[in-house]
Structure formats: C-alpha cells, structure tokens
Design goal:
123 residues; 0% helix; single chain; 4-stranded antiparallel β-sheet; mainly beta
Length: 123
C-alpha cells in the first residue's frame, strides 16, 4: 500500500484548504482510513477517520470545521478544512489499517501504512 498526501500550504486564519491522499496497492475496501497531524514538539494526533461503511469520527478540536471523505473510484481520501486556526498548523498525514470491516480508531499504533505528509501552516 502506498499513500501520498498533497494540498498543504500556507493560509491565513479563517481560510480553507483541501488535502488529498492518493492510495494504491491492496484492496482497501475493508480498511480504516484516517488523517492525523503532528505539530513540532508534539505527538501525532488523530484528526478524522472513515471506515469501510463510511462511518466517520472527528477529533473534538476539528468538529464542525473539517470534513473527511473518500472517492473509491479515484482511490483518494480527502480532508476539507475550513475556518482554519493557527493551532491547526502541523504536518498532516494519512494512514490506513485493516479494520476487518469494523469501526476505526485514533490509535496511531493500529495504522500499518502512512504517507510522507503534507505541511499546513496557518498564520
């Protein structure tokens, strides 16, 4: 499985960005897919996940501002980020793991595959 994020950049507070994660490899239909972020000096934290049944989970800090979605036909996972705040500044990663059709977790150690990340800076 290979994952590649894109769409990061620098925006002003209150702005918006859409991140994309293109994936390839094994059949990911039973996989959990998630967005995580890591700010300098901090641990990686879960932002949003989506499972094979399109059940979605968000971190409290992004609820109402971020939207996760996927386009299976395009093998792409998205993260629409609105009303961005300086505290959203971080490297954003997409990750996947085989949840065997179950609900996703924010536990980082569950995730088997990661992309290299894309930087988001909110000034």
């Amino acid at each position: 499985v290979q994952l590649v994020e894109s769409g990061g950049g620098t925006v002003q507070a209150g702005g918006a960005l859409t991140l994309s994660c293109s994936y390839s490899g094994n059949n990911l239909r039973a996989y959990c897919m998630g967005w995580f972020r890591q700010a300098p000096g901090q641990a990686r934290e879960g932002v949003a996940t989506i499972d094979t049944h399109s059940n979605i989970m968000y971190a409290d800090s992004v609820k109402g501002r971020f939207t996760i979605s996927k386009d299976s036909a395009k093998n792409t996972l998205y993260l629409q980020m609105n009303s961005l705040k300086p505290e959203d500044t971080a490297m954003y990663y997409c990750g996947v793991y085989d949840a065997h059709g179950g609900r996703c977790s924010f536990r980082e150690d569950f995730y088997d595959y990661w992309g290299p990340g894309t930087q988001v800076t909110v000034s």
